[in-house]
Every structure is written in C-alpha cells, then in structure tokens.
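User: Hello, can you help with two protein structures?

Assistant: Certainly.
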Amino acid sequence: MTMLVLVSLLIVAGLIYLSAAQLFAGFIAAIIFIGDLIIAGSGALLTFVLQFCIRIKRLAVRAKQFVQSES
C-alpha cells in the first residue's frame, strides 16, 4: 500500500512538473508575442507620424515659396 502511494505521488509530481514547464513556456511565448506586437505597432505608428511630418514640411516649403514669389 505504501509503495502505491509513493508511486502515485511520484506520478502526480511528474505531471505537475510537466504542466508547470508547459505553462512557463507558454507564458514566455506570450510575453515575446506581446512584445513583438508592441514593437510592430510602435514602428507603424512612428512611420505614419514621420510620413505626416515630411508632407507637412513639404507643404510649408511650397507655401513659403509661393508667398515669396507673390511678393
């Protein structure tokens, strides 16, 4: 009877160990995935802002040239 309890405890401990390893690996994978989403999202946002600023600058230069040519 004691041997059966010890074997059962060993099996339960092994299952807990394996499930904990899977949970930890999943947790790390989720952190990496979220980090990748943040990096990709911020990169897209910064690209959009940069394009917007370049267009505003070009518009300002054209407006300045137009004002100078009219004077």
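That covers the first. Now for the second protein you mentioned:
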Amino acid sequence: MSQEGVRLARDALADIDLVAQLRGAFSEAQSIMAQTLAEFGLTEQRYHLLLVVAAGGSDGTVQGLLARQLHCPESRISLLVHELGDAALVEALRDRPDRRRVLVRITLAGEAALSQAICVQRDALHGLIATLEVTEVTRLAELVARTYLGLDLCVSVRTPPQSKRPARKGRARLGPLPAAQTG
C-alpha cells in the first residue's frame, strides 16, 4: 500500500474514532440531561413541550399547533398539557373568540424550571466538547458537514484579535485603605 493509501486509511480510522467519541459523549450528555429533567419532574417530551410553549410567548400557543410542532397526536399533547398544568408549569385557557381552541401558556414556575433545565443542558453540551482538542472539533465539524450534509468544506479556527491598546496600570493609592476595606 502506498504512503498516500496508508494516510487515507489512518485518516478514515481517526474520523471513525472521533465519531465514536462524539457518540459516547452525546450519550453521556443525554443521560445527564434525562436525570436532570427527572429532578424537575420532566421527561424529554414534557421538556420539549415546555420549550415550544415558552417560545409561543405570553399570548400562548394553540394546543393543536403544539401537536403539529411536536409531531404528536392531539390526545397525547392534551395529556402532556394536563400533566404540566398539574405541576403548575403551564396553564391551559379557552380562547376567547373561539372557545373550541385551547391556548397553552407557560407559568412563572414553568419559566424558572425551564431556565434551570436549559442551563443544565448547556453545561452537559459544553461537557460534550470540552474534552476535545480544537483540531478535533474542527475535524468533527468538517466530518459532520461532509457526512450528513454532503458539503465539502474546510473549517478554520480564528483566534480573538489582540488589543492594540496598551495595558492600563493601576494607580498608586495616596492614602491608607479605609477601615471597611482592610482585614
């Protein structure tokens, strides 16, 4: 086998290894997220519903639209809304102009639970890539683009520009520190 063939085979194995690492980290992040959601009394489906309802704003989201957005039967959405309503995370109200329609709005308790769950999810996802080197992250982005999107692109890493301003030095204190700041 030529050196080029060996290099290509090695690169292919490295890509597979990187995808395996990502899959393992993703699985771990999902597990952490599921455990955390359970602490809030949420399943993944309830969490998704809460996200969609929150995105609907203060006017609320029509229950039938929730069914379409979550790709669930309306009967399942109705049950989820009832469960989240019992937990005081959402409220369901009849639409004034059309009493047949049910509007679902997130409550303050729902916003608080959702905010905490989002923070935990962000931390879990950060943990997913925190162990990867920058070169692995760029290779992964290229691999995902090529494999799943059919795009052949090159990802480069930009470092933040250095400030052109000189560093400011602190001023010398002219007198003793006030008593409240010592000790």
